[in-house]
Amino acid sequence: VKTHLQAQTLSDMAVGHQHNHENISGAFKSIYRQHGVAGLWRGVTGAVPRVAVGSAAQLATFTSAKDWVCERQWFGAGSWAAVLAGGMVSGVAVAVTMTPFDVISTRLYNQPVDTDGTGKLYRGFLDCIVQISSREGLLGLYKGIGAVYLRLGPHTVLSLFFWDELRKM
After folding, report:
1. pLDDT per residue over 152-169, tens digit each?
2. How many CB atoms lie within 10 A of CB 6?
3. Can you give the residue range of the structural domain that contains 28?
4. What pTM did the predictor assign?
């Protein structure tokens, strides 16, 4: 629903498929009416690995990065600056690992579908990866990485900062 509404624009500015929903409840009703409950879950095959990979990257890199800056004596052990530096490095790792899944999910969510709910552009997660890679190159999977970092970077830094402070308590 979110992706349908965010992609929607005026017809003279439109890029890609337009779903033309009037509001959130209208989008839910329209998707459900046309495709049932499964239509509300289209694209989940890209979203679930996105969260798993992003969380793994976040947790795996934070402590290592924080320890690394402390070992180099850039910041003192336990300092808030070391935590922020670790969070920034972790934010980069999250953006790098999650962006391909964001691109895939967005393509799967927003593609036009047949009356039975089958995508007209991609047959599924793997087909989407293959098509993007072959048509746009591997960097096609990283479209929007700057915007992804601007969103996830601060979120990662703040989440890990507060997590680290709460853990100390």
Report:
1. 889 999 999 898 889 888
2. 11
3. 1-42
4. 0.72
